[in-house]
Design goal:
The chain has about 550 residues and is an alpha/beta fold. The protein is built from 19 helices and 15 strands. It is about 45% helix and about 15% strand. A hairpin with a 2-residue loop joins strand 11 and strand 12. Residues about 540-550 have low confidence and may be disordered.
Length: about 550
């Protein structure tokens, strides 16, 4: 083996000296075929990169296209991404699956590779509907059954019809040589049997348990299926109607835990993909076990969530050739959900954030909105409430409040997970832009330095604004404070409508909508800052007197 590696390396060195001569590349391909892939993997990728550069430099197109093709084929049996690129190599660009989506799906492909390489035991993948997660999984299974034809794999979904489509897709990939080059990647793995009634496929030889079995979660699993390779749970929740019923979710988890998971051998890998509808959906329940139960500490798992809109409020799925979904499309969908007072469904279906409808304190239908135009005349007060943070897991949340009578307009918010070097200038800018007269920080001993540093910054920049800090109440929890102020937030505060919000404002509102009464692990920075702002105006403690209009 060492001699072959030495030979490959010597040929590589000669290619470097003459990168536009095809002969060296063909010599390398011949030598690499006789070597162990793991030994020459790094050299294959270096040589392939040189071939791509040579083509761009104008080297002989026919020869170097063949070189590029052969280099992909060298890697395809062992590298999932190379496999997908090779089997679709001769398709028209707009007809390919992976190439137009490569930029967006590459991180997911790498996670799937890690699962196959033994670096992970379980992988959780959440993406919006119709973005390619099931098709990507289909290619993954086709790759696995070629790599390990003696293994038995299991694909499970919510309905028989979806399972049948997946089965038909596998047959198409492995039997259509004009569209896909699967047979060239795995020439010694013939299709030996298929059963459209049982939705099973056998590669290489007919086994008791097929290479791949496709089933619905309500179908026959016990005794009919066995999994020694990869068990795939794909969109096990049928949709909205099932997701909003906690009883149906728990019943579904019972079926998964009692019927599906026991079909996998101890050494099998688990791939969970779908829409994260609920914290008690099958993925949520499984994640809960892995995160919280000591018996599962040894399980290596990864959670990959790719939301519809990224941190800049731009589409994550704007694929080439108009194959995906634009930023405008997703923003329109969000506006529709907000108008229908169903932000929980938007966050679950499109953002991968399971939000329970039961226990949610705020919904968009209860709030007051305006179009960004403030009432005429001078406001009675302009102030800010700041829930500070140094970054990391917590956000700095601070609404700008412009008060006319009993109405509090919120034309701008600060909402940032960045450190103080980012958040402090943002707050100062808001003070300048809106003429804020009073700003109040909630500051414990840990955050006193934040407030002092902010005051020093204002003094240095000659920004006039009264700064005060107020420690959090010791006799009332933060959640209780938010709940106590909820009715005043709904009644008195007016927020920008969805057409006039910037990205950070929208994320602030998403955090408000996502607040639940009995969830101690959630981020509650945005609703807490609103409760602080309300407390600055309507205080009912024993040490504060305030005036108000007669109510009779």
């Amino acid at each position: 083996m060492q001699k072959r590696l030495t030979l490959c390396n010597a040929i590589y060195q000669s290619i470097i000296k003459a990168p536009h001569e095809a002969k060296g590349y063909f010599d390398f391909i011949g030598a690499a075929k006789t070597a162990e892939y793991a030994d020459v993997k790094f050299l294959i990728r270096k040589v392939r990169a040189l071939a791509v550069t040579a083509m761009r430099d104008g080297a002989d197109v026919a020869d170097f296209y063949e070189i590029y093709s052969q280099m992909l084929l060298l890697e395809a049996p062992n590298d999932f991404e190379s496999f997908m690129e090779y089997i679709e190599l001769d398709r028209e660009p707009h007809e390919k699956f992976y190439h137009p989506r490569k930029k967006q799906l590459k991180a997911i492909v790498e996670a799937m590779q890690a699962l196959e390489d033994g670096e992970l035991d379980e992988l959780f993948l959440s993406m919006p509907a119709r973005t390619g997660k099931t098709t990507l999984t289909l290619f993954y299974v086709c790759w696995l059954i070629g790599r390990h034809p003696e293994n038995s794999n299991l694909y499970c979904t919510y309905s028989d019809s979806v399972a049948k489509v997946f089965y038909q897709g596998i047959l198409e990939v492995i039997t259509d040589p004009y569209t896909y080059h699967w047979q060239k990647v795995f020439p010694h793995c013939p299709l030996v049997s298929k059963n459209a009634a049982d939705l099973t496929v056998n590669i290489l030889r007919k086994n008791r348990y097929p290479s791949i079995t496709c089933r619905s979660i309500g179908g026959t699993l016990n005794g009919a299926c066995d999994c020694s390779g990869v068990m795939v749970g794909d969109d096990l929740v049928s949709g909205y109607e099932e997701a909003i019923s906690k009883d149906r979710m728990l019943k579904l988890w019972g079926m998964v835990d009692n019927n599906l998971i026991p079909r996998a051998k101890q050494t099998a890998k688990h791939l969970w993909i779908g829409t994260r509808w609920s914290v008690v959906d099958p993925e949520g329940m499984r994640i809960g076990l892995l995160e919280n139960d000591e018996q599962y500490r040894s399980v290596r798992y990864k959670i990959v969530n790719v939301p519809a809109l990224n941190a800049d409020d731009m589409s994550n799925f704007d694929y080439d050739y108009n194959l995906g979904f634009s930023t405008e499309y997703y923003r329109q969908r969000r506006a529709s959900f907000e108008r229908n007072d169903d932000m929980a469904s938007w966050l679950a279906q499109y953002m991968g954030e399971p939000i329970e409808r039961m226990g949610s304190l705020f919904t968009s239908g209860e709030f007051r909105f305006y179009n960004g135009e403030l009432p005429g005349g001078n406001p009675d007060r302009i102030f800010m409430a700041v829930d500070p943070a140094f970054g990391g897991g917590d956000a700095v949340a601070a609404p700008v409040c412009v008060m006319y009578g009993d109405d509090i307009y919120v034309p701008e918010v600060i909402y940032s997970f960045e450190g103080k070097k980012i958040s402090m200038p943002l707050i100062e800018e808001a003070i300048r832009n809106y003429g804020v007269e009073l700003i109040q920080f909630e500051a414990n001993k840990t955050l006193e330095s934040y407030v002092q540093e902010f005051e020093d910054m204002l003094h240095k920049d000659k920004v006039r604004c009264t700064v005060q800090s107020k420690p959090a109440s010791t006799n009332k929890s933060k959640h209780q404070r938010i709940m106590d102020k909820a009715s005043d937030i709904r009644e008195h505060m007016l927020f920008l409508d969805s057409n006039h919000r910037k990205t950070h404002y929208q994320k602030f509102m998403d955090n408000v909508y996502g607040f639940k009464i009995y969830d101690d692990k959630q981020h509650d920075d945005a609703p807490d800052s609103l409760a602080m702002a309300i407390a600055m105006v309507f205080r009912f403690d024993n040490n504060y007197a305030y005036t108000f209009k007669r109510r009779f």
